[in-house]
Amino acid sequence: MTTLALGCDTISETERAESPTGGVELSLQILRTGEQKYELYKVTAKGEIEYGGGFKAFNGTTGWTGRLTPEEIREFLVVLASTGWCDTEPHDDPESTTRVAIEVRCDEGRHTWSVRGESEEVKKMHALLDPIARRRLESDLDRLPDPNEPPPDATG
């Protein structure tokens, strides 16, 4: 496991008051190398969620940004608190081929970890963020025909 504490990047009172997340930020990169499935989720202090999949995630970049609702922000903060990542190193499974990179900015400062395996904490955060990030697909899904309607008459 790699642990890196990045200075004393604590959240100021002004930022805490003005930010929808209270200044809290998270980056969660999950690289399932055995499946070649790569995901990157970022929650920003602006109350936005960013998502990157595939090679974008592998390279640490995102391609979609959406806004979190106040309820989603509350849920995010509760799940983040339950992970302990603001003050405790994440669990590591040295036998796993899955790589997880976590960067979190909380009142306690900014912490960055690289671990192996999807711990219960990683699974909880993924279970929260993935459905939110799937909103990026809504416009495509809205264009699809309604499966309950008969297909248009092809004979014209």
What does it look like?
- The longest helix is centred in the middle third of the chain and has 14 residues, at 70-83.
- Strands 1-7-6-2-3-4-5 form a seven-stranded antiparallel β-sheet.
- The N and C termini lie far apart (64 Å).
- The protein has helices at 13-18, 55-58, 70-83, 120-133, 138-143, and strands at residues 2-5, 25-32, 37-43, 48-53, 64-67, 98-106, 109-116.
- Helix 3 (70-83) runs antiparallel to helix 4.
- The protein is of the alpha+beta class and 156 residues long.
- It has a single domain (2-137), classed as 2-Layer Sandwich (Mago nashi protein), CATH 3.30.1560.
Question: How would the global form be characterised?
Answer: globular
N-to-C CA distance? 64 Å
Order of SSEs, N→C? EHEEEHEHEEHH
Rg calculated over all Cα atoms: 18 Å
Find the count of extended strands (DSSP E, 2+ residues): 7
Structural class: alpha+beta
CATH class: Alpha Beta
Described by its quaternary structure, the protein is single chain
Mean pLDDT: 88
Q: How would a textbook summarize the main sheet?
A: 7 strands, antiparallel
- Residue stretches low in confidence (pLDDT < 50, at least 5 long) are 2-7
CATH-scheme architecture: 2-Layer Sandwich
Q: What's the total helix number?
A: 5
Q: What's the helical proportion of residues?
A: 25-40%
Would you give the CATH topology?
Mago nashi protein
What is the domain tally?
1
The amount of beta strand, in percent, is: 25-35%
Strand order of the largest sheet: 1-7-6-2-3-4-5
